[in-house]
């Protein structure tokens, strides 16, 4: 009787531990099981930080061997256009950061969320960019990064056209803001000069009238 109860309790304990391990995210085998408790907490803390690490490296460097193979227009080489599209997107991040550093993209922010935030922000450098343009660009980017359909040269050219349109909006906005910031200074200088000239004229007129009265 006792061996039967012992085996049943052992079986139940194993089943409970299996369900617990499968229900949580992480390794199915407990990491650091025989380590000291302090070391276990440190291991768990470092593993939890992995989900917060976001890094987008440059996918194609200059003189990449994959770009020197000749013809890359076939479907088998369509991934080259995907890599080129993802590398080209960084131009948008750099432009937003340069024009308005307060809108810099954080590592945990997706491209879809970031483009929408930039467009809807009151300090956006993308003034005049329509929602249809932003949506079309986001869809093209997600097609290049996540899409299962072919991303060939035609899709890449369409993607680059949308990207250049967004970048041109940003450049126009930055130039417009720069011009508007210069106008008030020039206007103030001209007003000050005109005001000083009027004061001099009025002062000289008063002196002439006083001399005539004498």
UniProtKB/TrEMBL annotation:
Swiss-Prot/TrEMBL keywords: Golgi apparatus, Membrane, Mitochondrion, Transmembrane, Transmembrane helix
UniProt keyword Hydrolase, yes or no: no
GO cellular component: Golgi apparatus; membrane; mitochondrion
Signal sequence interval, chain numbering: none
Residue ranges with Basic and acidic residues bias: 203-214
Keyword Transmembrane among record annotations: yes
InterPro entries, A to Z: C1orf43
Cellular localisation: Golgi apparatus; Membrane; Mitochondrion
Pfam families: NICE-3 (PF07406)
Topology class, membrane: Single-pass membrane protein
UniProt region (Disordered), positions on chain: 194-214
Function: General regulator of phagocytosis. Required to uptake Gram negative bacterium by macrophages.
Name of the protein: Uncharacterized protein
């Amino acid at each position: 009787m006792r061996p039967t109860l012992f085996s049943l309790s052992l079986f139940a304990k194993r089943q409970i531990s299996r369900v617990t391990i499968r229900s949580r995210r992480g390794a199915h085998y407990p990491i650091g099981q025989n380590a000291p408790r302090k070391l276990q907490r440190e291991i768990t803390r470092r593993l939890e930080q992995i989900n917060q690490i976001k890094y987008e490296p440059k996918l194609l460097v200059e003189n990449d061997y994959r770009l020197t193979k000749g013809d890359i227009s076939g479907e088998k080489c369509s991934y080259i256009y995907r890599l080129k599209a993802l590398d080209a997107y960084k131009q948008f991040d750099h432009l937003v950061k340069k024009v308005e550093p307060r809108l810099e993209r954080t590592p945990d922010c997706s491209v879809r969320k970031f483009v929408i935030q930039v467009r809807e922000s009151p300090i956006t450098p993308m003034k005049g960019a329509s929602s249809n343009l932003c949506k079309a660009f986001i869809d093209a980017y997600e097609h290049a990064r996540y899409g299962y359909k072919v991303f060939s040269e035609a899709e890449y050219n369409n993607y680059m056209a949308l990207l250049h349109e967004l970048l041109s909006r940003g450049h126009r906005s930055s130039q417009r803001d720069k011009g508007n910031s210069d106008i008030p200074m020039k206007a103030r200088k001209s007003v000050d000069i005109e005001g000083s000239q009027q004061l001099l004229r009025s002062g000289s007129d008063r002196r002439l009238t006083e001399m005539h009265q004498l």
